[in-house]
Design brief:
Layout lengths: L7 E4 L6 E4 L11 H13 L5 E2 L8 H29 L3 H10 L7 H13 L5 H17 L1
Length: 145
């Protein structure tokens, strides 16, 4: 629930209600209908200047918990259907590797290439030019990640 700018808001630890103290404007002019309704509620029920936030559109904690559980269930179902669609469109990497090996083509993942580049860079047998080239190539792969 939106409250007017400059209002004091607190959480009542005894009741768990959020409360807003409305300004003490004598004229009441410029107040919206919602603010006037809150003032009437405050004056009639509290007397202390603190109005309990009573929004007709608010929900109980149990209603919110049920709605959240429904959202989680629907999200899981959506994720599962999405994963099934992806599995139908694409093949696993292991299957692709096997097919490429049959064609005598070696397929490497970015991770495998990066490991080779790092070992080439750390190798004492590599020349300075090879190390620089390895760093440039590694920069390309790291940038993709």
């Amino acid at each position: 629930q939106a409250v007017p700018a400059g209002s004091h808001v607190r959480l009542n630890l005894q009741t768990g209600d959020r409360e807003a103290k409305l300004s003490d404007d004598e004229s009441g002019k410029g107040d919206t209908r919602e603010e006037r309704r809150r003032k009437r509620y405050r004056d009639a029920n509290m007397g202390c200047g603190w109005a309990v936030d009573v929004d007709s559109n608010s929900f109980t904690s149990e209603e919110l918990k049920k709605a959240l559980a429904k959202m989680k269930k629907s999200e899981k179902a959506e994720r599962k259907t999405h994963e099934e669609e992806v599995r139908k469109k694409f093949r696993p990497i292991e299957q692709l590797k096997e097919e490429f090996e049959k064609l005598n083509v070696k397929m490497e993942t970015d991770y495998e290439i990066m490991v080779k580049l790092i070992s080439k860079f750390n190798s004492s047998a590599s020349t300075l030019d090879e190390k620089v080239a390895a760093l440039y190539d590694l920069e390309y792969y790291v940038h993709q990640v």
